[in-house]
Recover the amino acids of this structure.
């Protein structure tokens, strides 16, 4: 297999998973049932994407992983460079160029008590799968219907969503509400009642040419895609404000869209039964998306998978057994 499109056809069962320094067949890639990642959701993770051989914003994702780990007092037993090599090596092993990458670090094996100091060795797992390009919101009717969830986002002084932790119960409860309401997604408010984020995406609104997105004080994840979209919008000459957004502003916006690694940019066409922007993808959303598509596989936006093979052989393999 030579290229990304061929690798896209690789049967998932044949892919290898990195577990604590070893590349294992999927069926053998396991962690202990005594891992506190399973018992308590105690751990951190990243969802990352590679486009045409470039891992988009890999350094930024690794930085966020280590910030999350630092916040929960989890010492990752691998330096940032070695962690990046673990991701790249897993992609190379699976010969993937267009991929979704799930990187997780668990607290490790402990006993049935909560005490995290019992867990001496965090587990590191890298799962990679082929990803096909997301649907283009400009040419496909893929706008999402949403509700405003009754489940409030965990506040920044509680289980803050600035930490990308393995505990997604807050999002899952909101997602269940969306399922029950037969819509695609739930948008959550912070404890003060301002718009926070969707269950796995950040939120943007556009009103009279101004783009606004909730600031970090509204209990959001510091989204990597959010940051890139802000940069693109500013480069295109749109004013962007990070501020508190009320549900009133959300419902009455000209355009609403969500951003995330997996979702990329998804227009929202309904909130609580009210149609946004006539139910069509807005001009500003479409323009920013067009630019995002152009830049997402630029080498300057990430780290190449394959050109670092040599350096991986020389140094990075230290952590592979
Ligand atoms: C709760 C939440 N907010 C926002 C995002 C978007 O973040 P990013 O753009 O870094 O993927 C995610 C992504 O998984 C998420 O889980």
């Amino acid at each position: 297999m030579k290229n990304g499109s061929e690798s896209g056809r690789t049967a998932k069962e044949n892919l290898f998973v990195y577990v604590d320094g070893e590349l294992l067949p999927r069926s053998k890639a396991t962690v202990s049932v005594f891992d506190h990642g399973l018992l308590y959701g105690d751990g951190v993770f990243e969802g990352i994407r590679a486009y045409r051989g470039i891992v988009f914003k890999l350094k930024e994702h690794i930085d966020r992983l280590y910030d999350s780990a630092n916040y929960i007092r989890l010492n990752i037993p691998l330096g940032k460079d070695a962690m990046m090599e673990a991701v790249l090596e897993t992609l190379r092993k699976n010969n993937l160029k267009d991929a979704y990458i799930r990187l997780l670090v668990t607290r490790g094996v402990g006993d049935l008590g909560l005490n995290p100091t019992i867990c001496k060795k965090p587990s590191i797992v890298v799962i990679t799968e082929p990803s096909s390009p997301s649907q283009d919101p400009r040419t496909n009717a893929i706008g999402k219907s949403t509700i405003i969830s009754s489940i409030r986002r965990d506040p920044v002084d509680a289980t803050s969503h600035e930490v990308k932790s393995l505990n997604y119960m807050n999002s899952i409860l909101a997602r269940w509400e969306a399922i029950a309401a037969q819509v695609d997604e739930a948008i959550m408010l912070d404890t003060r009642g301002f718009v926070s984020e969707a269950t796995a995406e950040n939120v943007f609104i556009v009103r009279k040419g101004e783009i606004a997105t909730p600031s970090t004080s509204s209990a959001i994840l510091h989204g990597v895609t959010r940051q890139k979209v802000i940069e693109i919008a500013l480069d295109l000459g749109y004013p962007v404000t990070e501020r508190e957004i009320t549900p009133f502003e959300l419902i009455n916006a000209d355009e609403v869209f969500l951003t995330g690694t997996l979702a990329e940019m998804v227009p929202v066409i309904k909130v609580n039964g009210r149609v946004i922007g006539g139910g069509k993808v807005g001009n500003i959303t479409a323009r920013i998306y067009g630019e995002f598509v152009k830049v997402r596989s630029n080498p300057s936006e990430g780290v190449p998978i394959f050109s670092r093979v040599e350096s991986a052989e020389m140094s990075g393999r230290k952590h592979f057994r």
Remarks:
- The first strand starts at residue 16 and ends at 19.
- Residues 78 and 319 are 8 Å apart (CA to CA).
- The mean pLDDT is 92.
